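Hi everyone,

Forwarding the result from last night's run.
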Amino acid sequence: MAQGSKPGPVYLTITETSLPSAFDVIEEEEGVTHRKPDRPFKPISHEIKHESGSFVHTIKRDADVEICLRASAAATNNPMRFVLLLEEMGDEEDADSNTPPVIAVDAHLSSMAAHLNRIESDMRKIQREADLSKERDSVYHARTDAMNKATTFWPIVHVCILLATGFTQANHIVQFFKKRRII
């Protein structure tokens, strides 16, 4: 970087995309909506002012999260390197409980108790991931069912149209021959 030049701002933007539930997909296909649609998430931007630090972002619902770093000073002749370490924290119910956080466990409990707490926390994370996968699977299943119904319905409609067209054509040809007294 040239002397005297000040690097431009660096922004971290987090965008959440709400995941549709199985009920939303089924209601959308049926054209019936019983619930108010969720408000769209607004992107959250933070200016990074220091070379290192941490940032905490809480996600209230199941969502896909996209993280974007924008650095105006970054270019091919001035590359910038960023390191993102993502850590999934416990639920609010975990924070409200009387159990100490995993970081401070070593000071209060034995090493074995710290390992058990960390395993329990990991199990809760795995359970949440399994629930999310189950929800996504049910959405996929609902869409596959709808597609299967469409693929069996449309060929039947096409065959019926073809039969009706063929019958009409044959009827017109018979009437034409009768009119001309060929038959």
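Strands lie at 10-18, 44-48, 63-71.

Cheers,
N.
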